[in-house]
Amino acid sequence: MQISNELRAMIGRRRPGYSLEAPFYRDKEVFDLDMDVIFGRHWIYVGVEPDIPEPGDYFTVPLGRTSVVVVRDDDMTIRAFHNVCRHRGARLCDGDKGSVGNVVCPYHQWTYDLRGNLIHTEHMGEGFDRSQFSLKTVHVGNVAGLLFICLADEPPADFEQMRREMEPYILPHRISDCKIAYEEDLIENGNWKFTMENNRECYHCKANHPELTVSLYEFGFGYQPSPENAEEVHAFRELIEREHARWESCGLPSVELEFLDSRATAFRTERLPLDKAGESQTMNSKVACQKLLGDLTQRNLGGLSFWTQPNSWHHFMSDHIVTFSVLPIDPERTLLRTKWLVHKDAVEGRDYDPKELSEVWHATNKQDGSLVERTQIGSQSAAYQPGPYSPYTEELVEKFMSWYFKRLRTETGQESAIVSPFAASA
Predict the structure, then answer these.
(1) What is the rounded distance in angstroms from the CA atom of residue 202 to the CA atom of residue 187?
(2) Boundaries of every domain in the chain
(3) Residues 6+ positions from 313 with CB-CB distance below 8 Å
(4) 201 and 397 in contact (C-beta within 8 Å)?
(5) Residue 126 neighbours by CB distance under 10 Å
(6) pLDDT tens string 22-70
């Protein structure tokens, strides 16, 4: 797409190691570029297989002005289509999710099967060729039950590389044998990049997340070393090594894989120990569901974290999974979609309580939403200017921004070899 000279100049002068100039968080031109280059040409995490367990089940994905419907067809294949009738463009499927036999346009009843084929119309004449008016398809990718879509005609091919590398980490938790025990949508009053920046660091966690930090080790997500904490940091690193060895011996890959700014389909994963009881991200750090996932038999399996660019993060414990999808609405509003998964045979009220299961991340999401809104408001001040990231606790924020600007520069013809200021400390 064509962009203004002013935006092209802002992209070119981005200072590594610093937050962005205010228009990147506020301006419609930037948002339109984000929707085209980032959300229009990369793999976007949107949901899980248990969202659509049966034929005809669907869920919708809002992406700015675009809507996509993801559906399971009669052969159990997962498909995705633009949520637009081929007649006169009416929205087809309403709501966040539902179930249909066929997809019927509410306007003039054009009817499509679950493969997107137009199978019924009235009053279109004898020679009307329905085969020319199938729904417009969207690419679907599946990583061990995590569902991704790509709007591009030719999506990044390295998705398959991520899938091969990540499936051994995720498969033991058996997403396909889970059900969604609780889910919520939260509208954050901030730009989607503020949501992602906030997620990619825990600099703010100790002061803002009393529920989340019950089960998180203070040294697990970046910490400035000093003579005062050297012994504790060393002990934590030894704990990680011991637990990685234990988990790997049980068939659970655990060591870090990190490709957050070196690939188009970028990601990071690592299994880390949990504090206190060490079982789950709950208020007492014990399991919230008594029926463990898959064939897992041990409760203290830490937390496997999986981050993808540009819009998701996930936490896998022995008893439940939490997944997060960031979906831009407009320059200053973002949908955060969160799902809590348990074993499909777990019984509510006996094996788990939805409130206990969700209370940590329910509280954390609300706290983060307030922080995002606070930052969005601050970016509107004439006094705002980009500030420096911490090289100890915000390295992953810089990697997110490095990935983001590589994508923008590639698509706008401004490719350059800018080195992260954190490279030496990585």
Answers:
(1) 21
(2) 1-42+159-426, 43-155
(3) 199, 305, 306, 307, 323, 324
(4) yes
(5) 4
(6) 999 999 999 999 999 999 999 999 999 999 999 999 999 999 999 999 9
CA pair distance 294, 391, nearest whole angstrom? 38
C-alpha radius of gyration, the chain, whole number:
22
pLDDT in tens, 355-382: 999 999 999 999 999 999 999 999 999 9
Distant-in-sequence contacts of 280-283, Cβ < 8 A, 24+ apart: 280/215, 280/317, 280/318, 280/319, 280/320, 281/212, 281/215, 281/216, 281/315, 281/317, 281/322, 281/360, 281/361, 282/214, 282/215, 282/356, 282/357, 282/359, 282/360, 283/211, 283/214, 283/356, 283/359, 283/360
0.90 exceeded by the pTM? yes
Strands across the sheet containing 267-272: 178-188, 333-343, 321-330, 312-316, 303-308, 267-272, 257-259
What is the rounded distance in angstroms from the CA atom of residue 309 to the CA atom of residue 325?
Answer: 11
Q: What DSSP string describes 223-268? A: ----TTTHHHHHHHHHHHHHHHHHHHHTT---S-EEETTTSSS-EE
Q: Is the CB of residue 375 less than 8 Å from the CB of residue 312?
A: no
Tokens found for residue 110: 């054009």
**Domain 1-42+159-426 falls under CATH 3.40.30.10:** no
Q: Cβ-count burial of 1 within 10 angstroms (0-12 exposed, 13-18 middle, 19+ buried)?
A: exposed
Half-sphere exposure of residue 66: CA atoms within 13 angstroms, side-chain side = 19
Residues 18, 24, 29, CA angle at the centre, nearest 5°?
160
**Those residues with Cβ within 8 angstroms of residue 145's Cβ, 6 or more apart along the chain or in another chain:** 48, 49, 50, 170, 174, 175, 176, 178
Superfamily of domain 43-155: Rieske [2Fe-2S] iron-sulphur domain (2.102.10.10)
Question: How far is residue 338's CA from residue 218's CA, in Å, rounded to a whole number?
Answer: 24
Q: What angle do CA 260, 264, 268 make, to 5 degrees?
A: 25
Token pair for 255: 């060591």
Reduced to 3 states (helix: H, G, I; strand: E, B; else coil), residue 80 is strand
Q: What is the DSSP letter of 348?
A: B
Distance, in Å, from the CA atom of 203 to the CA atom of 272, rounded to the nearest integer, reads: 18
Are 57 and 97 in contact by the 8 Å Cβ rule? The answer is yes
Q: Do the beta carbons of residue 275 and residue 283 sit within 8 Å?
A: no
